[in-house]
Amino acid sequence: MQKRSITLKGHRTSIALEAEFWAALEDLAVARERSLPSLVYEIDRNRLKQDPAPGLASAIRVFILESSSSSD
């Protein structure tokens, strides 16, 4: 498990993910020509539309899984 701090909307937030998920998230950011904070911000905005809103780390994992299954 790796914990990283990312700035979202001017606020630092810590996210703990397994190394494999960080690598996949970085790959997705590169593929979409986005910065990592920009991609995480998009995931965060979308997760807050859900009721109840999942945790950010969970939302990131689901985003990665959905992205990988849609590219198959």
UniProtKB/TrEMBL annotation:
Residues 2-66 form the Ribbon-helix-helix domain. This is Ribbon-helix-helix domain-containing protein.
